[in-house]
């Protein structure tokens, strides 16, 4: 007897010692499990959430408690906000290198005529990732008070 699509989905895993169910099928370039299920391309962790909870709440994304992109164990995933996901990534040390690299890239391109709007968006993103005003200030060569005004939307309010 042939397994149903759902049974096949749940079977495509390697169980790790930490409880992660690692996806054994196709993965994205960023390491997330992916598959076609009932004619639609899904990431494995999102499909696991859909199958166990019915739907993803509006404005939420599906994040990993375990910080393992291949994991689709329903006990290791949750519906959270983008901010929740960023803080989890920072807590796991995953974003340290990413936002440091972003700062380095900005230092290199600071004289390449980035628009003020693009710079304001980048400054707010770095601040949300936990980068200090001092580090942002050094990268953009503007004072901390100006960084604060941008982050708190006292200037560049529409961005």
Give a brief description.
With 159 residues, the protein is of the alpha+beta class. The protein is 45% helix and 14% strand.
Q: Write down the CATH topology of the largest domain.
A: Homing Intron 3 (I-Ppo) Encoded Endonuclease, Chain A
Give the total of domains: 2
Instruction: Indicate the structural class.
Output: alpha+beta
**CATH class category name of the largest domain:** Alpha Beta
N-to-C span: 57 Å
Query: What is the helix fraction of residues, given as a range?
Result: 40-55%
* Strand order, sheet with most strands: 1-2
List how many beta strands DSSP finds.
6
Task: Report the total helices.
Answer: 7
What is the molecular shape?
A: elongated
| Quaternary form | single chain
Ranges where pLDDT stays below 50 over 5 or more residues in a row are none
Order of helices and strands: HEEEEHEEHHHHH
Strand content: 5-15%
CATH-level-2 architecture of the largest domain: Alpha-Beta Complex
Largest sheet descriptor: 2 strands, antiparallel
Query: Roughly what is the average pLDDT, rounded to an integer?
Result: 82
Radius of gyration: 20 Å
């Amino acid at each position: 007897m042939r397994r149903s699509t759902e049974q096949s989905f749940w079977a495509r895993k390697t169980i790790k010692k930490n409880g992660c169910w690692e996806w054994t099928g196709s993965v994205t370039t960023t390491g997330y499990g992916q598959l076609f299920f009932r004619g639609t391309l899904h990431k494995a962790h999102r499909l696991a959430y859909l199958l166990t909870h019915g739907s993803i709440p509006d404005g939420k994304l599906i994040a990993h408690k375990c910080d393992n992109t291949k994991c689709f164990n329903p006990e290791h995933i949750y519906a959270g906000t983008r901010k929740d996901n960023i803080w989890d990534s920072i807590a796991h040390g995953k974003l340290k290198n990413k936002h440091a690299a972003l700062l380095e890239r900005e230092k290199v391109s600071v004289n390449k005529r980035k628009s003020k709007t693009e710079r304001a968006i980048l400054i707010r993103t770095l601040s949300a990732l936990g980068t200090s005003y001092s580090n942002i200030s050094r990268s953009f060569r503007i004072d901390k008070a100006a960084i604060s005004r941008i982050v708190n939307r006292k200037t560049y309010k529409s961005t």
